[in-house]
Amino acid sequence: MRHSTLSFAFLLTFLATIFFLQWMTDATRTPIFWIALVIAIVFNGISLYALPPRPRRSAAFVMAGLLGLTAACATVTWSTWEPPASHISHFLNRMDVTLIGTVASEPDRRPSMTQYTVRLERMQDTDGFKRDVTGKILVRDSKGWPRYAYGDRLLLHGNLKEPWSIDGFDYGKYLALQGIAAILTSATIEKAGTGDANLFPFALGRSGPWIGFGALYALKEHFEAQIERLLPEPHASFLAGLLTGARRSIPKEILNDFNATSTSHILAISGYNITIILTLIGGMLFWLPFRWRFIPSVALVAAFTLFTGASASVVRAAVMGSLGLFALQLGRQQNVRLSLLWTAFFMLLWKPQYLWNDASFQLSFLAVVGLSEAAALINPFTTFLPQTLGIRDATRATLSAQLFTLPWIILLFGRLSLIAPVANLLIAPLIPLAMLFGFVSVCISVLSFPIGILLSYATWGILSLILLIAHFLAHLPYASVEVKIGRSMTAVLYVCIGLLIVFVQRVSIPAGRRPALAT
């Protein structure tokens, strides 16, 4: 039996088990379950040596599945274990608490408030009792001044509350993906100094955050400020969303236009954006052989990831986007699929909740599947586009990703954009140009602001055209309709898409030929 077949058995069993365990996480903590699993593995291992060659292959296939099942159960058991008694999740819904902690990620600055993710060290109740605590909370500061930065040690006072649901959206699960267990409301914030040692005698002097992230976040903030100097709103917020993933200041009506046309994926750093960057770089390196473009492209994506702050979502997007480029590099489709499954394996090994609750991970995963599988199906619709700056490849990547993400988007958000294919065909070729001119104009404006202003006019024109197209299409009758489907219907849609792609690949692609997107 080929090693790739065993790998598929292991990985697919792992993913399927992780998926189904979201509804029965307690089952993996039963001793009887683990005893039965160990007995099954031992019995199957003995049969590998006792059986003849042909049945032994089946036993090896079963062993790979059992190991995938074991890895999935161990991962879920470890990740869903009850937190220690000192964790902040055990002290929710308390009023007038005082805490000390360190800003652990990039501040989320919005027009109406600033949100800080704080890693806690110590807490004092209203009764004066002090204790060490662990975990992270979200602190909301409506004053906005003074401004605090990553790595600042803060003294906090407010009401510690459990995250609540918003219009059916489970905000608690969303925050839990970031390791945040509570929200501090009605907060008063000040920097913790040496005078706080009497209040928290064990809190000061602990190891601080990595200084490199502070420099990265400061660079990103300066870059976004330079965008605001060059462009008016909403163009500045739009460009910041494309280049740094900051969509906090984008007007709600523009977000609604992009949602209605199913093009909102371009407004946040995702596997799609990283793929666009990769194809843009590939287009600029057209003078190199295709295989030689891989290393400089991935190196520049790594630099881009660090520039945007290297948050967990951006790192995942970079990995998925690089995998999409890797899919174009490889000539064998089987290797592409294995690479994608191994990537998902290592991500879920760290946090299986990504597969359960993280729409960003789910859509990025499906987008890369579409990128690697649907090229032949999309090819006939993009032959009229030029290859310049990777415009044709970017459009193919967009449509391929849309094909595989559409059923899941309908399941998650309950809406179907009927205008989405037209919107993506019109907008996708403009995104590489907007990102290129925008990035170059910002960088040059640091050296010479007048020249940067001149270049920014081209950026403004491209962004204006994108906004105009999105607004016009979003307001057409029946551009977006409400559609409710369940998981079973979603599964049926994916089976139909898969069968269609298999049919097209068998008819149009000779054996051993590279996926068409790579040509």
Q: Can you give a write-up of this model?
A:
With 519 residues, this protein is α+β, with helices and mostly antiparallel strands. The chain has three domains: 77 residues; 122 residues, OB fold (Dihydrolipoamide Acetyltransferase, E2P), CATH 2.40.50; 301 residues, no CATH class. 57% of the residues lie in helices and 12% in strands. The chain contains 19 helices and eleven strands. The strands form three sheets. The protein has a five-stranded mixed β-barrel with strand order 1-3-5-9-6. A two-stranded antiparallel ribbon has the order 7-8. A two-stranded antiparallel sheet has the order 10-11. A hairpin with a 4-residue loop joins strand 2 and strand 3. Helix 7 crosses helix 18 and helix 15 packs antiparallel against helix 19. The longest helix has 27 residues. The C terminus is likely disordered.
